[in-house]
Amino acid sequence: MSNTGYFVDKHSIVRKIWGRADTVLFIFAGASAEFALNKAVDWLYFTGKLPADPLGRLFSTVNYARMIVFSEQETAMKAISQITAIHKGVEEKRGDSIPAWAYRDVLFMLIDYSIRSYELLEEKLSDAQRAEIFRVFSKVGEGMNIPGLPENYSEWAVMRESHLNDNLIKSDCTVDLYKQYKKHLGFFRYVILMQVQALLSPARVKKLLDLKESGIFKPIICVYKLCRKINLDGLLKEAILPANYKVQIKALDIKGL
Questions:
Q1: Domain ER-bound oxygenase mpaB/mpaB'/Rubber oxygenase catalytic, which positions (predicted)?
Q2: What is the chain's mean pLDDT, rounded?
Q3: In sequence order, what are the beta bridge partners of 6?
Q4: Terminus of the chain with fewer CB atoms < 10 Å: N or C?
């Protein structure tokens, strides 16, 4: 059966990565650290939606991303157009343009944390699989008309390092956003978030946020991976996930991938 009707090939590693709830949550847990440091984070504060409801904002972003990954070409392109229109609307209200590098940063984060999260929870990716992840999200960027995108994975890796060095700073927005994370997650889940970020974040992010890995958290991840294999991970998820979002999180798991 042909897969040409889908934005992402049915056998793509991207579908496998984005078809598991815990991997998706790890992607956004890692990205939430870098989001807080980005020099353009004030754009997310402009609407007030991010600090008011960081979890709601997370699921809104996840829904758009997954609509693109798992939809047919036409539906995916409509989702991309809708994302672009939302950003243009914010730009019009503020009377300014979101910098092109900020758009690239977000796209680069999706590539990087997809790789890091899958490798932490599953297995090492091949060079071909990494290149496939790059191609999928590069196609999203092209659909959004983001300028200055890299031509291939190798070029992306160089640009990614440059962006990490040039576009991150610990600001008042950073401090406030972490206060909101803690407020909305509660102390226990906030500690888990910080540990996941410490495991996933690039060195530059760890340094700016002073993220330190706990000696016991890597073994906990190993136990969790074992629980996944014997289908006991659901019990752990029930214990640690926010009650208001359990239904949405369960819906992130796609069977048969």
A1: 47-177
A2: 88
A3: 72
A4: N
